[in-house]
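2024-03-11 09:14:02 INFO worker-7 job=invfold-0412 stage=load source=structure_tokens
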């Protein structure tokens, strides 16, 4: 078992293991391009959908919170505005 562990450890950290391509420079070019688009649109359809979902949840959550505070306000229950 010691030999197996040694083999697996060497395989996991050796240079012959699968190399991952660095995609950061490509993403930097995409997002830093001066094409007049807002940053939340530059990433494509998935980024646009994620942005819209985030904004919808944020606005809906704030609206619900405001509704909650208005309905629990002690001023309204006593007729004072």
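2024-03-11 09:14:09 INFO worker-7 stage=emit residues=81
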């Amino acid at each position: 078992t010691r030999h197996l562990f040694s083999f697996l450890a060497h395989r996991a950290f050796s240079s012959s293991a699968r190399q991952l391509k660095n995609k950061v420079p490509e993403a930097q070019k995409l997002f830093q391009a001066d094409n007049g688009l807002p940053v939340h649109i530059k990433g494509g359809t998935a980024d646009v959908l994620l942005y819209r979902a985030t904004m919808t949840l944020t606005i809906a959550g704030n609206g619900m919170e405001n509704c909650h505070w208005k309905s629990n306000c002690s001023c309204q229950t006593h007729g004072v505005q």
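2024-03-11 09:14:09 INFO worker-7 stage=report msg="The mean pLDDT is 79."
2024-03-11 09:14:10 INFO worker-7 job finished
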